[in-house]
Every structure is written in C-alpha cells, then in structure tokens.
Known about the structure:
Elements: E1 3-6, H1 13-22, E2 27-30, H2 33-38, E3 42-44, H3 50-60, H4 62-65, E4 73-76, H5 78-81, E5 84-87, E6 92-93, E7 98-104, E8 115-120, E9 122-123, E10 138-143, E11 145-146, E12 153-158, E13 162-169, E14 172-175, H6 183-195
Parallel strand pairs: 1-2, 1-3, 3-4, 4-14, 5-7
Antiparallel strand pairs: 5-6, 7-11, 8-10, 9-12, 12-13, 13-14
Amino acid sequence: MEAVIIDSGGANLASLQYAFERLGARTHVTNEARMITSAARVILPGVGAAADAMQRLRQSGIAALLPALTQPVLGICLGMQVLFRRSEEGPTDCLGILPDGVRRLRAEPGRPVPHMGWNQLCALHEDPLLEGIAPHDYVYFVHSYAVPVSSNTLATAHYGEPLSAIVRRGNFWGTQFHPERSAATGARVLANFLRLA
C-alpha cells in the first residue's frame, strides 16, 4: 500500500480513498496497529466532534501509537485538529503532536459558523506538500473550529481572521480543508503527499 487511511469512523473515508484511486495510488482503510506502523504513509481523516474522535482513537490504541510514527502522516480537517494539544470543542485533550490549541470560530454577520465552502490559500513557507500550488488557489472547507496561525503554519486562509489551512511539524502535516473535495488543487496536495518519503 502506498498509504494507509486510519478508520476514524468519519463519513469521508470512501471519498478520500477514491481521491487517491484517481491518482493511481493504492490505499487501505484500517485501524490495525501493525498495518499503520508499517505503512509508507498514514492519513488521519476526521469529521464530527473532537471528543468523539479522540475517544475512538484512544479505545483503538491509535492515540498512543500516532505520536511515535516516523513516516509521513497527513491529518485532514478534524484529523488535523486532533494533532494539536487541546481543542476548545468539549473542551478535549488531543494528541499533543503540535503544541497549540484549536479554537472555535467566531460567527459574525455575513460570516456564519461553520465555515463552509471555497476559500483561498496563502502560502507562508515553501514545503514539498505545497509544490505546484499557485498563490490564492481555492480549496474546500467545512469546519467550526480552527487553529490560529503559528510557526507551524505553512499556509493560511482568511475567514474574518487568518487561520491555519496547512500545518507541519516534522513528519506530521495537516490540512484544515478537505483535499478530497478540493478539485485539482486538492488532488495536487494528495499527489504531493504520496511523493513524501
């Protein structure tokens, strides 16, 4: 397998697997520790609530396993958020792989929460995951919580204030948007992930 997708119970597993198939990549959905630790690359998807996601990851033993992985790991949407230390949603203690916290988006007139739809990326740093991504390319978001911009932020999006759209710490990357729903730009992000070693 070129990548293992952790079975996080989310509704986007099939669409994510199909997005990789369109790139010619073989993936497998699992929560089996042996397959995850031996995979060339690991994807942690997620939709729903942080507390529920962390409960599933702890019950399966994956929460203890994830921080020790040394291969490229990509967290998507809620899967990115649980890479951080803590989420205001709940509030919930998360994996702590990245040090910052996840905050609830503030609703404003004309800016409802959840943030749902297409928004532009603004790259802050060069990174292999961003190769071939043009300035201000659009990607698709669905989320009510977000990570503030920090030294781990590779690219931002703006929704009333800047928020982390892509993050990285070591071999862990995260996208707040859904690359599997983000047309050509999202496909390029996934293709770039498949090239990471």
